[in-house]
Task: structure prediction
Amino acid sequence: MKITQDLYQGSLALLTDFYQLTMAYAYWKSGKAEEEAVFNLFFRKNPFQGGFTVAAGLDYIIDYCRNFKFGQDDLDYLKSMKNADGSLTFEPAFLEYLSKMEFSCDLDAVEEGTVVFPHMPIIKIKGPLIQCQLLETPLLNIINFQTLIATKAARIVYAAKGDSVLEFGLRRAQGIDGALAASRAAYIGGCTSTSNVMAGKLFGIPVSGTHAHSWIMSFDSELEAFKAYADAFPDKCVFLVDTYDTIKGVKNAIEVGKILRERGKEMLGVRIDSGDLAYYSNLAREMLDEAGFPDAKIVASNDLDEQIITSLKIQEASINVWGVGTKLVTAFDQPALGAVYKLAAIKNKEGLWEPKVKVSQQSIKINVPGNQRVVRFSKNGKALADMIFLKEESLERGQFTIIDPVDPTKRKKIYTDGLEKEELLKSIFEKGTKVYERPDIHQTKKNTERNLTQFDKAHKRLVNPHVYPVGLEEGLYELRTQLVFKMKDYDGA
Ligand SMILES: Nc1ncnc2c1ncn2[C@@H]1O[C@H](COP(=O)(O)OP(=O)(O)OP(=O)(O)O)[C@@H](O)[C@H]1O
Ligand SMILES: O=P(O)(O)OC[C@H]1O[C@H](OP(=O)(O)OP(=O)(O)O)[C@H](O)[C@@H]1O
Ligand SMILES: O=C(O)c1cccnc1
Ligand SMILES: [Mg+2]
Result:
């Protein structure tokens, strides 16, 4: 299919906001294009009022950076752009410069599946100002969505308490790439499979599914429909039992289950897609058990999300498998993560790095300056706190104080003796060359699981979670405060 081929293999250099290109042009014009800069990508609040976030999207970013090149057709398009007075928007020498541009940055990032928190850089990029600037929009586009969906999936899977969650979202997803990226991120977040066959092909995700009401409706009776399905897929029978009358539907499923058994095959289960899912699943369970099908699974679907699944668990519904579509792939209750990308440092004419802050009335919006690293302190595999600190800082200290970036009254002393330290930002590109061995998607999914087990359930609680401590190392906090004063011209008077 041409659309997705273009999306995944063609030149994507123009997948950026126009202002990135006008700034790029102005950087070039003013001789700043090649100045070295550091930018950070981070978000300010965990989504869904939750206590954690699962990073996803790096794999796309690796491809994006590797293919970062203005193609001739991109340059032709830019050449055709005119200002209001009819003059060229971009002068030919700039387009010539763009035609030779190759990705040459250092890029550090947390691996996909890493549990991350507000304010920490999840991607850090260091390189020519012009490249860092042009990458802002695509990096945000990729990370914002996939991280959001991976997190939503992790929450849904958490609510399902070990049951399989099948992702059914394609029909309601935000367009073609929204659907594909969502299926990928949902798998990373913990879903068992997707119904999206193209996602299966492109990403190697397991594909699964049952059948629809239309299948039943196309026959004169439900029983006939089940029998015909059993003939076609004797090993894959999950009968949708609620087209007409759920109780009769379960009876019909049992009847066909017995026929299958005579042929040496086992019905896998039934799916319920409407009505009171607790009531009908419990009834179905009783009927299936009584009829000698204790292993038949009960799949539920119909506008599910983590809250409804939690409620159904409390009601002791007999549901073993959850089919979740719309509310997962559209991140229904929070449609954007809100990650941002900010300049953190720039090398001045003397070759010295200058940390940078963007001052805001709201302290949550003041970014963290300087070239940073992030360390996760844990004890016996249990994460205790994360610290954002300056690159030059040594981790070989016995004690650190971390300070909440938004509320300086929240501080925590960390005595490092006996603690495990994991640096979260891994080197992905060095001067434009990929140095990172990417895991396959199944390893990434396992990475999510491993990461989530490190965190106490108090942080994973879906409602009013306990806030996991993430802070700035004291020296970095002080640097930020001083910079804010300096930029505001505040002399303390
Ligand atoms: N026992 C339950 N506890 C809490 N929520 C439930 C329970 N059973 C079903 N739900 C949820 O309630 C909502 C019911 O939605 P709705 O009224 O649109 O469906 P329906 O009338 O059962 O089905 P349909 O319109 O598809 O025939 C769904 O989101 C479903 O997941
Ligand atoms: O509810 P979701 O989480 O999005 O899961 C996917 C839904 O898609 C299918 O039906 P569809 O919604 O197309 O039709 P229906 O509501 O009339 O059953 C399926 O039966 C699920 O109910
Ligand atoms: O396979 C299924 O049961 C399925 C697939 C997509 C949407 N709803 C259900
Ligand atoms: Mg529906």
